[in-house]
Specification:
Elements: E1 29-30, E2 43-47, H1 50-54, E3 62-63, E4 66-67, E5 79-85, E6 88-91, E7 94-97, E8 101-104, E9 125-126, E10 130-132, E11 158-160, E12 166-168, H2 171-178, E13 180-181, H3 188-196, H4 201-223, E14 242-245, H5 248-252, E15 260-261, E16 264-265, H6 268-271, E17 277-288, E18 295-305, E19 330-334
Parallel strand pairs: 1-2
Antiparallel strand pairs: 2-5, 2-10, 3-4, 5-8, 6-7, 7-13, 8-9, 11-12, 14-17, 14-19, 15-16, 17-18
């Protein structure tokens, strides 16, 4: 997760609506009918009914430690392409072994049952919650069932401590408990990624690009002498606006020598996105800290951009968290009403 240092209180903003049919650049094909072969990127699958999924869950709404969340109910009965197998993931800046889990398209958590968390995490799906599909089926009308957390008491969303403090429970907060750490020098992790269909020429090209950006990043951090965040004029930005990521030179001028802008870290991977254009997804004001389960409130404005997500650098992590962007790093091209 992109690092932040400071937090304070703030007001929630509405979460982004998810598309019914996410896009993927992978060749799409029917999922295998043979259950012995796990789902692979490009397979079409259908999310099982809530009744079928409920039969796989324990008293806390989990399957082998992974929660099925309220925000996922709306996708029951719908078809999506598998984008990645989650053979591994990241938690607390460490790579973790997972397995028997996939990501579907760009289906993300809206935070509706978790008091409006705005992280927009890519959802994890156990293989048992899915079944093979021949392709994209007809549009499914929105589920009549509510995703309010009180509707499904066995799907735990939070725990209240004796002192009244609330700790949230979601897929992100549980990753550290249901996975095992992968050491950096363990090369079998890359073999598993190749066998799962996650590591293709596209990902190799991404790693090569990251390497050159990392060298530029190291040069900046070793030569910069800026101790405090410089002041820089920022434009007001709203969800739906089309923005362009400013040039490397402009962005580096807004950072301390450690690569921070008022506590928010910029990264080598984000340098690769300079000059590209994206739609603003959300203005992030609050999010659940996956390490503690506590809600954190952002002190200064930061935004997320559609498809501007973490590619895992050389680790090839498929989790795809949103990068956080300061307004100072973006240039508005057109407003959402244009």
């Amino acid at each position: 997760m992109q690092q932040t240092k400071s937090s304070t209180s703030g007001q929630p903003s509405p979460a982004k609506s998810l598309p019914d049919a996410p896009q993927t650049s992978r060749p799409l094909r029917p999922a295998p009918q043979n259950p012995a072969r796990p789902f692979r990127p490009g397979d079409w699958v259908e999310v099982r009914s809530l009744a079928e999924i409920s039969a796989t869950l324990d008293s806390e709404g989990k399957l082998r430690g992974l929660p099925f969340m309220h925000e996922m109910v709306q996708f029951c009965g719908k078809r999506f392409p598998v984008s990645k197998r989650a053979e591994k993931t990241c938690f607390a800046e460490r790579q973790r072994r997972l397995g028997n889990t996939v990501h579907l398209g760009d289906i993300r958590c809206e935070g509706t049952a978790h008091d409006g968390c705005q992280l927009g995490c890519l959802l994890f799906w156990r293989d048992e919650w899915l079944k093979a599909a021949p392709g994209p089926g007809p549009p499914v009308p929105p589920a009549a069932m509510s995703v309010h957390r009180g509707s499904y008491p066995n799907l735990v969303t939070r725990r209240t401590l004796p002192d009244g403090e609330v700790l949230y429970v979601c897929q992100a907060t549980e990753l550290g408990k249901l996975s095992t750490e992968i050491k950096m020098w363990n090369l079998t992790q890359y073999v598993r990624e190749v066998c799962a269909g996650n590591l293709t020429f596209r990902e190799v090209k991404q790693v090569i690009g990251w390497f050159f950006s990392f060298l530029q990043w190291r040069v900046f951090k070793s030569t910069s002498k800026t101790e405090t965040t410089p002041k820089f004029q920022a434009e007001p930005i709203s969800p739906g606006d089309l923005v362009e990521v400013r040039s490397k030179k402009e962005i580096l001028q807004t950072l301390t020598k450690r690569g921070y802008n008022f506590g928010l870290a910029f990264s080598a991977e984000m340098l690769m996105l300079c000059g590209k254009r994206y739609r603003v997804v959300n203005i992030v004001k609050k999010m659940i800290d996956e390490n503690t389960g506590k809600m954190r409130f952002m002190q200064r404005t930061c935004v997320t951009l559609d498809s501007a997500t973490c590619k895992g650098a050389f680790k090839c992590c498929p989790r795809g968290n949103y990068h956080f962007w300061r307004n100072e790093w973006l240039k508005k091209i057109e407003a959402r009403d244009t």
